[in-house]
């Protein structure tokens, strides 16, 4: 089995936190805006960032901001490559939403509970609870019935994409974690790279160091 090499598809000025977190686990990684180059890695990370271009999920702009359409296209291409190759993908915050959109889902562009979830000059924190149908999903394996996570978003999944299931939610019902039922694709709405000592390293370790879980 080849050594783990994680591709982070994003702009390098925005990805140092992700690179530092992955390398702290002893895993090699690189940041790229070339979807074909990313497809040569063993693992894909779709990082957080601005909001997704609403046209990609069939809507007009109803509160989306910090849009980077060029990057959206590259990230969606990378997701398609990895899903075709059945290689592991981890979505973080915007990355969760990108996976959902790629698989035909939609986004609520400004959730009713945004004040409790959005970036407020810092991450906010709140509990999330397991909502899977069994105990086999990654969230229950890592965190049991619930855990506390950080939060810096104002959008969330509305209609869930094809093949995806929610594995955890916030108390207000916001979907905070998803997985694919047949592909090695998992995603969370929070930022594990910014809470490594508070459960974040557990998730990144699971994703990057244990290919057998797939």
Notes on the structure:
The chain has a single domain (5-213), classed as Class I glutamine amidotransferase (GATase) domain (Rossmann fold, 3-Layer(aba) Sandwich). The protein has helices at 16-24, 35-38, 69-85, 94-102, 114-117, 138-143, 200-209; strands spanning 5-9, 28-32, 43-46, 89-92, 107-108, 124-130, 146-151, 156-157, 164-170, 175-180, 185-188. α3 crosses α4 (94-102). The relative contact order is 0.17. The longest helix has 17 residues, at 69-85. It has 214 residues and is of the alpha/beta class. The strands form two sheets. A nine-stranded mixed beta sheet has the order 2-1-3-4-11-10-9-6-7, with helices on both faces. A two-stranded antiparallel ribbon has the order 5-8.
Shape: globular
**In which range does the helix fraction lie?**
25-40%
How many helices? The count is: 7
Question: Number of folding domains?
Answer: 1
Low-confidence stretches: none
Distance between the termini: 14 Å
β content, as a range? Answer: 15-25%
Q: How many E strands? A: 11
**CATH first level: which class?**
Alpha Beta
String of helices and strands: EHEHEHEHEHEHEEEEEH
CATH architecture: 3-Layer(aba) Sandwich
The largest sheet, given as strand count, sense and whether it forms a barrel, is: 9 strands, mixed
**CATH superfamily, please?**
Class I glutamine amidotransferase (GATase) domain
Class from helix and strand fractions:
alpha/beta
Question: Remind me, CATH topology?
Answer: Rossmann fold
Strand order of the largest sheet: 2-1-3-4-11-10-9-6-7
